[in-house]
Amino acid sequence: MGYNLVLVFFIVLAGCFTQSLTGFGVALVTMAMLPSVLGLQVATPLVALVAIALEFLMLLRYRASLKFRSIRGLLISSLFAIPAGVLYFRRLDEGIALFILGLVITLYALYALTGFRLPELKHPAWAWLFGLFSGMLGGAYNTSGPPVIVYGNCQRWSPQEFKSNLSGFFLVGSSVVVSTHWAGGNLTSDVGFFFLISLPALLVGFLLGQGMDKWLNPETFRRIVQILLIILGARLMLNILF
């Protein structure tokens, strides 16, 4: 138990530091590692609780740059898809679920690492499509980030808009995810215990990310994280084979 507590603390710290510095990453980093430590049934609702607390702090920090109209379509469509994702999470075999999670993380990290630049998407319908995918992934694995990050890149958001718009979107989405997990009985005493352990790590990670934002190149750090995510995602996919 003591070993698991230390692992959970540092995994959450790493995820919160990554998001505080780059604007996203808490769910991708933590969901790439925590299921191997706690199991998917505890890790998924735990990360949802950690994410909503961190996203609140992030939105307070970058609220001046938030443009709600930029994320309105994303939000509305994702809210419809989140409950379906949570239902899917409860019914799918854990080995298969971990494989799909690893595949999502790996594909996103490969896309981000290559620097492939997608065309600008101006039609409003794209927001609804990306929001649906984001909601499904958010409800099932807390990994709503990849579709929204890709969409934001296609909208050519500035770095400040990127952080604030993502924080606003994630905060609303995480609130629905947590509520759905609560209604489904997934917020167990184990989840609550590990969430309390995670709170100091969350605060330290947030403050470190904000402090290092002034001198550490976020793009260089992001690339290091992407390489690690490829390794961790591949590891999750291999779990089903061994």
Task: Write a brief structural summary.
With 242 residues, the protein is mainly α. It has helices at residues 2-22, 26-38, 40-62, 68-91, 94-114, 125-141, 145-154, 159-183, 189-212, 218-238.
SSE arrangement:
Layout: H1 2-22, H2 26-38, H3 40-62, H4 68-91, H5 94-114, H6 125-141, H7 145-154, H8 159-183, H9 189-212, H10 218-238
Helix pairs in contact: 1-2, 1-9, 2-3, 2-5, 2-10, 3-8, 3-9, 4-6, 4-8, 5-10, 6-7
Would you kindly provide a written description of the structure presented here, covering whatever features stand out?
The chain is mainly α and 242 residues long. It has one domain. It has helices at residues 2-22, 26-38, 40-62, 68-91, 94-114, 125-141, 145-154, 159-183, 189-212, 218-238. Helix 2 (26-38) runs antiparallel to helix 5, helix 4 packs parallel to helix 8 and helix 5 runs antiparallel to helix 10. It is globular and about 45 Å long. The mean pLDDT is 83.
| Rg estimate, integer Å | 16 Å
Instruction: Sketch the topology as an H/E string, one letter per element.
Output: HHHHHHHHHH
Helix content: over 70%
Query: Roughly how many Å apart are the termini?
Result: 24 Å
Query: What is the overall pLDDT average?
Result: 83
Classify the secondary structure makeup into a structural class.
Answer: mainly alpha
Apparent shape: globular
Integer tally of domains: 1
Q: Roughly what fraction of the amino acids lie in strands?
A: under 5%
In the predicted model, the low-confidence regions spanning at least 5 consecutive residues are none
Number of helices, where a helix is a run of at least 4 consecutive DSSP H or I residues: 10
Please count the beta strands (DSSP E, at least 2 residues each). Answer: 0
Largest sheet: none
